[in-house]
Sequence to fold (426 residues):
Amino acid sequence: MSRPFFTTWSQQSSDPLFEILEGQGARFRTHEGWWLDFASLSYQANLGHGHPRMVDAIKRQAEKFCLCLPNHTYPAKENLARRLLELAPPGFDKVFFTLGGSEAVENALKIARLVTGRYKTISRYRSYHGASMGALSLSGDYRRPPLEPLLTGALHALDCHCYRCPFGKVVDSCQRECAQQFDHIMQLEGSESVAAVFCEPIPGANGVLIPPDGYWRKLREACDRHGALLVADEVLTGFGRTGRWFGIEHEQGVVPDMITMAKGLTGGYAPLGAVLVHERVSKMFNDQKLYCGLTYYGHPLSCAAGEEALAIYQEEGLIERAASLEPLLRSGLESIAAAVQGEEADVRVRGLLGAIEWRNGTEPKWASFFTTLSQQLKRERIHCYPKIDTGMMVIAPPLVIEESELREGLERVRACVVSASDHMAC
Fold:
């Protein structure tokens, strides 16, 4: 019997589905049994599954009211916006709410065009900014080309990929060419045409590409020199994923003009995104119309979920927890990488966001490795993302994961990798 709905990012005739029946902490249950969630579903379940406080917060709001006009207010909306601005770097004074990450990027793009009067953007080739047409135009992975042509003026720069530096440099002696290129691109394109630079503090789904020190300072300097806005896309990295509230905090003193966010904002318990806007940008709309709007702007159930999520992060110490578990995740991934004997690999970890990239992982012989690895992980009921197209594996468990669960999961993943490695060697 065929499914009555589409599955995303997949060929409809071949995509396997599993039905999630319930969840608790870092695990969810299907008809096959309990799974260990090593990817926070799609990187949004920072608070894990079945958190009672989140369920109660949504219930309380639903019992009061579920509907509101976009431009009307209520306590959860006010409180959430003020709390987000408290968490942001100094100078941020406005929040634009959306229903998710793609919409957050779309509206940041619109704001950048309205403020600067320009239309070009610069983002990176290995990036993901969303599935809607504008956000996808900024993205730099396999999902963009099939839908081109997209937005005119969406330019792409080479990546901050120290393991495979596109400039042939090493991090100890380079001049941060990966960041300097943004200045060159704006010069060549014409400073008067580039509205904004959109970058994830750490490209997550595309391989946990941790930029070298000084990278974001150079981006800020280039944007200031050419009058472009700097947008930090924190949809994946925000809310403790990297061991800080926001990934941009890992480079001190850099203040972007806008910050986009979603996923961890509610821990996935309700659809919500946001754009945080610095006063140097927001002040324009005191006297000029903001041409941005959504029917479900600041939806009551979503804002109640967001307000409670921020309280949980703080009261349960989950930001600090992610930072404290980083060494364990790193050592576990290093052990997993070494399990493929004779093959060089790079391990990259920040907080509870980690990746292994095998040097030769995209060569044809590795196809059997990743196919077998996916099968073994499914048998072990471990949910994570081995990526055959890039020769890597990304792991990002919920921030509520117990240390014992993290150790157990890493050992089980290592056993799966050993099995897949043996199969590749045959």
